């Protein structure tokens, strides 16, 4: 069971949490959540149909065991550079000041080589002491035989560290969903 908790536009709104936290960064696809899409709820600052519409940090409680946190995406947002810079500062404060953070999921469209923004975000996440889990989205748009080639291009384009998890994922077919949840559940039992 999951539910939306709040949307934050400033660090003062970041909720004090006792649960462990995972968050999604990039171009999120909420079909990861079992049974139904979290976006079926009315959420301020969110419209999943239009890239760049997440302009707040959105907190979701999952089974009273963890928080899933959706951050503003940078990939296809059609907003002014000043707005993207504002998002960057907000995200940086969140990541640097959230002691409960257990994992960072970086969502990247598998169909394309990683962008300069993808590389910058990956490097920044690593520089700040996290080992991001790469969710390679839209895998259903590729032929099965193309997936290994695109995963390799993603790994090379980001210069991933050895052992970095890359999970091909499809919101349409649900491929990768169970793997993501197994990984998220395993993080709940790691020592803090």
Structural notes for this entry:
By secondary structure, the chain is an alpha/beta fold. The chain has helices spanning 81-97, 116-127, 147-158, 177-188; strands at 2-8, 20-26, 57-62, 66-70, 101-109, 133-137, 166-168. It has 4 helices and 7 strands. A 7-stranded mixed β-sheet has the order 1-3-4-2-5-6-7, sandwiched between helices. Residues 27-46 have low confidence and may be disordered.
Summarize the structure.
Helices cover 28% and strands 22% of the residues. The protein has helices at residues 81-97, 116-127, 147-158, 177-188, and strands at 2-8, 20-26, 57-62, 66-70, 101-109, 133-137, 166-168.
Proportion of residues in helical segments: 25-40%
Spatial ordering of strands, largest sheet: 1-3-4-2-5-6-7
Overall mean pLDDT score? Answer: 77
Rounded to the nearest angstrom, the radius of gyration is 16 Å
Secondary-structure element pattern, one letter each: EEEEHEHEHEH
Which structural category do the helix and sheet elements fall into? alpha/beta
What can be said about the biggest beta sheet?
7 strands, mixed
Residue fraction in strands: 15-25%
> What's the number of extended β-strand segments?
7
> Uncertain runs with pLDDT below 50, 5 residues or more?
27-46
Shape by Cα distribution: globular
Distance between the termini: 24 Å
Number of helices: 4
